[in-house]
Amino acid sequence: MKIEVKELSAWYGSHQVLRSVSMGVRENMITAIIGPSGCGKTTLLRCLNRMHELVDGARVEGEVLLDGENIYDPSVDPVEVRRRIGMVFQKPNPFPHMSIFDNVAIGLKLAGVRDKRKLREVVEDCLKKAALWDEVKDKLDQPGGRLSGGQQQRLCIARALATSPEVLLFDEPTSALDPISAMRIENLMLSLKREYTIVIVTHNIQQAARVSDYTAFLYRGVLVEYGETAVMFKTPRHKLTEEYLTGRFG
Ligand SMILES: Nc1ncnc2c1ncn2[C@@H]1O[C@H](COP(=O)(O)OP(=O)(O)OP(=O)(O)O)[C@@H](O)[C@H]1O
Ligand SMILES: [Mg+2]
To answer: pTM of the predicted model, to two decimals?
Structure first.
């Protein structure tokens, strides 16, 4: 397992939103987290790279092991955890006035990399991996905010790749995009899993079926069912899972 979640509970103040969730995330696979609105999907995702604790009054109990090491251990630097486990959000959020080049290079620049050749190399490599290079290679100095929504999302993926993460977390990465752009992101995720471990939160059950190897179904903060996507979608073990997958509630 690349990540092992062990009896993880999470709160916002006194409001408990995750209840003793345990699950594994396999290396070089895509794991989908599905479930109705408000069930705790985003919270679970943000617990995987210690972003949850950035919210005032938020806390967690339990463990998240990354390569066997608990990321909540006091000796672990949360900044390094977030470098190893990158995140892409629902709404594309490039720095709109910053150049396309700098949008990708920013993480490295902040980490102190000055070598121009190195920066160019990484930017080109990440834009290629994010399937955006051909569309932007002649306008790297233009602002990121001038790209289309789908291009901006791929730019954010390139930005996430630039600091050499091992795991990528996607929170509904296509829900703000048109169907063609969404399809491109799905294909991109499928190509990225050769090199990265991916966790995706999605409202779109068909999308989970298309891209994921494993699926976790969350309901009111409880992990109801977790298993191979193909198996779960065909023969769900729990009645709630079946009802959710067949669209009886959302
Ligand atoms: N910053 C916050 N402060 C307080 N409560 C929050 C905060 N973010 C989320 N919550 C609450 O935690 C619960 C789970 O929210 P979460 O965003 O994890 O759900 P979700 O499954 O991602 O929902 P959606 O599908 O609508 O994105 C909800 O009851 C929500 O109101
Ligand atoms: Mg959410």
So the answer is: 0.96
